[in-house]
Design brief:
Layout lengths: L1 H25 L34 E2 L24 H10 L5 E2 L34 H4 L12 E2 L14 E2 L4 E2 L10 E2 L1 H4 L25 H4 L7
Antiparallel strand pairs: 1-2, 3-6, 4-5
Length: about 230
Amino acid sequence: MKRILGLSFCLVLAFAAVSFAAGAGLTGTQHDLSGGTGEICVACHTPHAAVASTSGPLWNRTQTSPTYRYYSNATFEMDSPALALGAQSLACMTCHNGVASSIVNGPGSGVGNVAPYALGASATNTIGANSFSNIGWGALDNNNALTNDHPVGFTYVPGTDLQNNGFPAIDAGNNNITGTAMPTFAGKIECATCHDVHNQAYAAGANEVNFLRQATAGSAMCIACHVTKG
């Protein structure tokens, strides 16, 4: 019995350590939307009363998702089948598409739906109506267009390479693009392929972009996939 209790206690400590590490990684970053409540995770997740959504685990935000217009170019070779944002990208767009979304279950016991994040430049809980982080916001891209952003929501087929990019294969063991820290999701490229919402590892470097999975210095992020262009 003592052995079982000891093992259980160790597992609890391990889980607590992982949870703390994830929260600590967001503290003070742009994804720290606690608003002085001290509750970092609740901006996106809730242990109870989560919405029925494919956007994310125990998802705590609700939004009527707009219809997106996708990147299209004669040199883009992987647009068949048609692009469609997967769950990993839709989770990001809940905040980053410039359309207000609301927290379903706010901090505290039994707290119900709370006011949506405002989009005005001077409003509380704002990410800014014209912020660069609002991908597809009408004032910038015209009606939720993703047409001027790197394509996402497409099936990654390395052999489709008419422009001689040297696209790496997918490492079947971990679903990453071979030689990179960038995952695929059911064989598709999503926002989370290049971005890790919980990780600021490269943010401290000069000219680095927040929440990337690889450094941008020397265009390393681009060359990871577009191998021959470096």
